[in-house]
Automatic annotation (TrEMBL):
<keyword id="KW-0238">DNA-binding</keyword>
<dbReference type="Pfam" id="PF12833">
    <property type="entry name" value="HTH_18"/>
</dbReference>
<feature type="domain" description="HTH araC/xylS-type">
    <location>
        <begin position="221"/>
        <end position="319"/>
    </location>
</feature>
<dbReference type="InterPro" id="IPR002818">
    <property type="entry name" value="DJ-1/PfpI"/>
</dbReference>
<dbReference type="InterPro" id="IPR052158">
    <property type="entry name" value="INH-QAR"/>
</dbReference>
<keyword id="KW-0804">Transcription</keyword>
<dbReference type="InterPro" id="IPR018060">
    <property type="entry name" value="HTH_AraC"/>
</dbReference>
<keyword id="KW-0805">Transcription regulation</keyword>
<dbReference type="InterPro" id="IPR020449">
    <property type="entry name" value="Tscrpt_reg_AraC-type_HTH"/>
</dbReference>
<dbReference type="InterPro" id="IPR029062">
    <property type="entry name" value="Class_I_gatase-like"/>
</dbReference>
<dbReference type="InterPro" id="IPR009057">
    <property type="entry name" value="Homeodomain-like_sf"/>
</dbReference>
<protein>
    <submittedName>
        <fullName>Helix-turn-helix domain-containing protein</fullName>
    </submittedName>
</protein>
<dbReference type="Pfam" id="PF01965">
    <property type="entry name" value="DJ-1_PfpI"/>
</dbReference>
Length: 328
């Protein structure tokens, strides 16, 4: 029997509490229908017996408090929290020493989406990989620079600590854990029951790039604006440095610090985001879109596009173009 403790943080997203509970419970139900004993003992664990979630719209009753658990669980699940990450972290700080204690006593730990902020605050993943919702990547890097964030991944698995990407991709991590504990066949059955794409490994195709401008470096903001207004042109680092009267190395250092991207990465991301928008909404072919966003080398365009989105331009258009979708 695997003992699973699903935490109920203040301000949690209700679905990321109930979703794992449902999937793990379904495994038990399937096993019982096969005449086998249940595999999971699932408990909701909180700091108080009644916890407000979803901005106070709901309350979750938790029979067990962290202080009630007499034995170390096999798995601690940290659901996603809503709202400002720093405020959510402060409201749930009392969980942190408990999570750390359980891990050092032998428990595995899994964070779902924005639950990664609570996981990172324990210090357990300093120097290790973690993923979270792509929209929170900048805040995460700013708050936890010692963690190696890999926001393009749906799942990370390192030293008994797991994390999942954004929103409902937490279900992919839950299936991953079901496969680990109950086998591939059971994971496939659950994927079919809950209609989850079990093979998803990347959330790159869902990322919408919006250049980080919540910083106080005005020359860098000017450079960002110039890139976004002239992405069709060939822009060089030297050109931007001259425009801002900065040395190249100084510009690159400040740009990376302010945006978490190098200048070249930022230019590529802006161009590819424009290409994605065209592929989603227009009838232009891939080469026409490529030229519109300032690429002249088809191989370089396709390589950069796939690296940033996980899909080829043609695959992306087939997946997201409104006219193509309406044709089926």
């Amino acid at each position: 029997m695997k003992n699973i403790a699903i935490l109920v943080p203040k301000g949690a997203i209700l679905g990321s509490i109930e979703g794992p509970r449902l999937v793990f419970s379904e495994v038990n139900a399937l096993l019982q229908r096969m005449g086998k004993p249940p595999l999971f003992d699932i408990q909701l664990v909180g700091l108080t017996h009644e916890t407000p979630v979803c901005g106070g719209l709901y309350s979750v009753y938790t029979p067990l408090l962290t202080t009630d658990l007499a034995t170390t669980p096999d798995l601690v699940v940290i659901p996603a929290v809503d709202g400002d990450p720093a405020q959510a972290l402060e409201a749930n700080r009392a969980f942190l020493p408990w999570i750390t204690e359980q891990y050092h006593a032998g428990a595995e730990v899994a964070s779902l989406c924005m639950g990664a902020f609570l996981l990172a605050a324990t210090g357990l993943i300093d120097g290790r990989h973690c993923t979270t919702h792509w929209a929170a990547a900048h805040d995460f890097r700013r708050m936890f620079p010692a963690v190696e964030l890999v926001e393009n991944l749906v799942i990370t698995d390192e030293h008994g600590i797991y994390s999942s990407g954004g929103a409902f991709s937490y279900l992919n991590l839950v299936l991953y854990l079901v496969e680990k504990y109950a086998g591939r066949e059971m994971a496939v059955v659950c994927a079919k029951v809950f209609q989850i794409d079990i093979e998803r490994v990347s959330q790159s195709a869902f990322i919408m790039f919006n250049g980080q401008k919540e910083h106080g470096d005005e020359p860098i903001k000017k450079a960002q604006t110039y890139i976004e207004d002239h992405y069709q042109d060939k822009i060089t680092v030297e050109q931007l440095a001259d425009m801002l009267a900065l040395g190249r190395r100084n510009l690159e250092r400040r740009f990376k610090k302010a945006t978490s991207n190098s200048v070249v990465e930022y230019i590529q991301r802006v161009k590819i985001e424009a290409a994605k928008n065209s592929l989603e909404s227009s009838r232009e072919n891939v080469n026409e879109v490529m030229y519109q966003v300032g690429y002249t080398d088809p191989k370089a365009f396709r390589s950069t596009f796939k690296r940033l989105t996980g899909l080829s331009p043609k695959q992306y258009r087939t997946k997201y173009n409104r006219d193509l979708a309406a044709a089926f």
